[in-house]
Amino acid sequence: MPPFVVAHSYDQLAALWAGSDFHRDNGMPQHRRALQFISKPGKALDVGCGSSGRIIDLLMERGFEVEGIDISAEMIRLASQRHTLVVFYHADVIEWMPTKAYDFISAWDSVWHVPLASQEAVWTKLLSSLSPGGVMILSSGGLDEAGEVQNAHMGVPMYHATPGLRALCRLIAEAACIIRHLEYDQWPEKHLVVVVQRV
């Protein structure tokens, strides 16, 4: 599925993500765990930031200077209204090139929408954007090998892919990072959460 289709789908979901009924605690315990590996706040990036602002709120509370990126124009519009002083990039993470190193990167339920053929390049780019000692929390499909699926689970066309756990572990090692924490947090659903640190 082309990324612009995913972007259009999330344009339609943006108001729901920003609404009061959105489950704002989703992923928060995992983020707080990942932040334990950071000695002091610095620059942070929320990949696939969406419109809820929950991850940005947490990072700002911890003293980080936060930026966000999302492929959905409507997500970015609503996020900008919520956080008027945060820098947001309306961009496809496949094409977007970071101009700085980050001390913390959140890639929560976002990169798995990247086409399978581009997954390894995107993960390598993000991992390589960590500063020395920097931490990234990522979620991915927890398959052993690469896989992809299309559905309308959320009522709109959607796509998910994963390079697979074997490839992800290889990419982490090749980027001079080590795994600090790994869990299947929604077992038996294969939702994989990994916390990595650049050494």
Structure description:
The chain is α/β, with parallel strands linked by helices and 199 residues long. The protein has a single domain, classed as Vaccinia Virus protein VP39 (Rossmann fold, 3-Layer(aba) Sandwich). It has 6 helices and 9 strands. The strands form 2 sheets. The chain has a 7-stranded mixed sheet with strand order 3-2-1-4-5-9-8, sandwiched between helices.
| Helix percentage range | 25-40%
What count of helical segments does DSSP give? 6
- Would you identify the CATH H-level superfamily? Vaccinia Virus protein VP39
Total beta strands: 9
**Which sequence of SSEs, written as H and E, runs from N to C?**
HHEHEHEEHEEEHEE
Main beta sheet: 7 strands, mixed
Query: How would you classify the quaternary structure?
Result: single chain
Radius of gyration: 15 Å
Q: Please tell me the overall pLDDT.
A: 95
- For this structure, the CATH topology is Rossmann fold
Count of domains: 1
SSE order and pairing:
Elements: H1 3-18, H2 28-35, E1 43-47, H3 54-61, E2 65-70, H4 73-82, E3 87-90, E4 102-107, H5 116-128, E5 130-141, E6 147-151, E7 158-162, H6 165-174, E8 177-184, E9 191-198
Parallel strand pairs: 1-2, 1-4, 2-3, 4-5
Antiparallel strand pairs: 5-9, 6-7, 8-9
Describe this structure in a few short sentences.
The chain is an alpha/beta fold and 199 residues long. 33% of the residues lie in helices and 30% in strands. The longest helix has 16 residues, at 3-18.
